[in-house]
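not sure who needs this but someone in the group chat was asking about Thiol:disulfide interchange protein from Thioalkalivibrio versutus so here u go. i didnt clean anything up, its just raw.
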Amino acid sequence: MLLKLVLPLAAALAVFSTPVMATDAIEETMARVIPDAEADSIRETPMAGIYEVRYGTDILYVSGDGRYLIQGNLVDLDTRENLTQAALSGVRADMFAAIGDSELVTYSPNGDTRGVLNIFTDPNCPYCREIHQDLPEYLAAGIKVRYLMFPVLGRDSPEIMDRIWCADDREDAMDRAKEGDKLNDIDGSCATPQDQHMAMGQQLGLRGTPALITESGQQMSGYQEPQAVIERILGSN
């Protein structure tokens, strides 16, 4: 969506062709060009004269003189760090930190929690079932696993997910669903966060399941070897 705005936005920003563009000037211009969305943040980047403008999980870069707009990844060639992805990881981390364990299907380790792994799942997803089989390995490593709904693979997936969330014991219901149980004995008519989870997944650009997001906001798609994920989680803490 934002890609279509590059040319008109660049033209509008050219009005502010002063050596240094103040943040409020950028905000004012972006509000005119994208009136239906308010920037979540506008901040300077390590690159001289370049500002990061963020809309949810969309990031644009605007030159300080108002002449140029850049879409894409900003990379520090000295450190090899992708600054755009680092910024997005922070956004994702904040998104998941705002969701309490009680709102999800949460599996906690018996001992100390050393990290958290959030997983968007679908009951009809075969790779999701493989990840669920790896659950003991994650828990043994001190990783708390939290499931969110993203039922897109089967016609009955939304109903099964609602039944899981409405169950007296969500973890047991999830375990059963991962074994192919349709949970027809559970009334799924309670209020669930399915719409919110779907909206969050779409905001993150998910196209399927499983999707894994670590506590630090790193995002991975598809089945991942548990040891590699565990090392990634513990290495970022």
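also The CA atoms of residues 141 and 231 lie 10 Å apart. if thats useful
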